[in-house]
Amino acid sequence: MRAAQFQAANDPKRKFTIAHAFGKAKITRSLQVLDWLAQRYEIEREVRKAKGEAANLGKVSSVSQLRIVEGRVALRYWEAFRKALPDWLDFQGRMITSHQKNASDPFNAALNYGYGFLEAECRMAINAVGLELGVGFLHDFSNYQTKESLAYDLQEPFRWLVDLAVIQAFESKTLELHDFYFTGDDYRYRFEAEAKQRFIEVVRERFNSGAKYHSQLLKWDTIIQEKTIELARYLSDRSSKPDFSGPTVSLQRADSQEMRRKILSLTQAEAEKRGIRKSTLHYLRLHAKHHGSFAIRRKISEKLIQ
């Protein structure tokens, strides 16, 4: 199987096929996250630009061209995040000077930590299946950055899990500015120990949310391993094409702009007709008036959208 992996990595056509599957999956999920973000924030312009860049995916014919399209989509993606995030985070994007690893603000610090969690899951899946970590398709082996190229490849379709966990941690105030400290020796933000534990629970909750895949409800770590097995099957000529896009996931916000407007316009008489108590409406209005995220119980949500 590893021999087949090496052969595929050295075959331009096959390498491109696998790299394209990774890139397409990442871009598809990124656009899905942007649509989710747009339910709450005014980022329609950035979403349009990202989708415009993504439309070029069907025109690429090499891994280098694929990387360019992926990079341009990522640029628009993080521009949307920058517009949505509060100013105190001072988030300017993922590319800081020459490297993405610089945690020059709390949001990037949290992203880096979350991606580290994801990388460990990908590495375990690759080792369990028996593929070679250093032989990738979208990422090339590099002595200074990507020695585990396949682990970087496998992360791409699942980075959205971390992105959602991080923004939800800040929206819910699970993470705040005082949960970080700045180190002057390397100009990076780092977690306070207790905050790190709180954040990792948010990430675990996101991974444990899972999705229906092959008629089973699987956690995301299991789905990552299933996708790795599918890649191995393709490399061994036991499947016709690689696919990292599934499973289908629906991302909906309880605190969307539409829902906030609905809550704030709902009169007490209308609420009573829908079976919503006065005290419940009071707390819903308090949440809807404030910037922070909030959750609505399914039964209440169903009554609101009647």
Structural classification:
mainly alpha
- Quaternary state of this entry equals single chain
**Rg:** 21 Å
Shape: globular
Report the biggest beta sheet as strand number plus sense, adding barrel if it closes: 2 strands, antiparallel
Uncertain spans = none
Instruction: Provide the CATH topology of the largest domain.
Output: Four Helix Bundle (Hemerythrin (Met), subunit A)
Continuous helix count: 13
The number of distinct structural domains comes to: 2
- The ordered string of helix (H) and strand (E) elements is HHHHHHHEEHEEHHHHH
What is the CATH architecture descriptor of the largest domain? Up-down Bundle
In total, how many beta strands? 4
Order of neighbouring strands in the sheet with most strands = 1-2
* Distance from first to last alpha carbon: 55 Å
What is the CATH C-level name of the largest domain? Mainly Alpha
**Mean of the pLDDT scores?**
88
Residues in helices, as a percent range: 55-70%
What is the CATH superfamily label of the largest domain?
CRISPR-associated endonuclease Cas1, C-terminal domain
